[in-house]
Amino acid sequence: MIVVETQNRSGVDVDEEAAAALARSVMAAEGVEEGELGIVFVGPDEIRALKRDHLGVDEATDVLSFPIDGLEELPPGAPRSLGDVVLCPQVVGEGWRAPLVHGLLHLLGLEHGAEMEARERAHLSA
């Protein structure tokens, strides 16, 4: 089972249940049957600080991913911690699904390119 923990620190209403359901759907479609991940909604100032501190770029962005285990081989019985996706609703607006899928695929180790774009389209059209 995929356990999704959500947190909203953005100051605006977000559909945390829908975000968690989408995350579970993407993980299942990618063959991830067990693990845990976090989805955190933050405001523009917080996501800007995260991007500056972790990527060296001082600007707000739509989504950041902080992978942990990804799809690496784990010792038997070890829980899989996929990592966290951080979204800024004020930047993404109503179109939060595409950035969330993008961030989730980064947790699985995918990088920008044609394969990632094709998988994003497939998940969003499902």
Short description:
It is built from five helices and four strands, in the order E-H-E-H-E-E-H-H-H. With 126 residues, it is of the alpha/beta class.
List keywords for this structure.
alpha/beta, 126 residues, Collagenase (Catalytic Domain)
Major sheet attributes: 4 strands, mixed
Structural class: alpha/beta
Report the count of strand segments.
4
CATH overall fold name: Collagenase (Catalytic Domain)
Distance between the termini: 20 Å
Mean pLDDT: 94
Strand content: 15-25%
Helix content: 40-55%
Order of helices and strands: EHEHEEHHH
Name the shape in a single word.
globular
Note the topology.
Layout: E1 2-8, H1 16-29, E2 35-41, H2 44-55, E3 63-67, E4 81-87, H3 89-92, H4 97-107, H5 114-125
Parallel strand pairs: 1-2, 2-4
Antiparallel strand pairs: 3-4
Helix pairs in contact: 1-4, 4-5
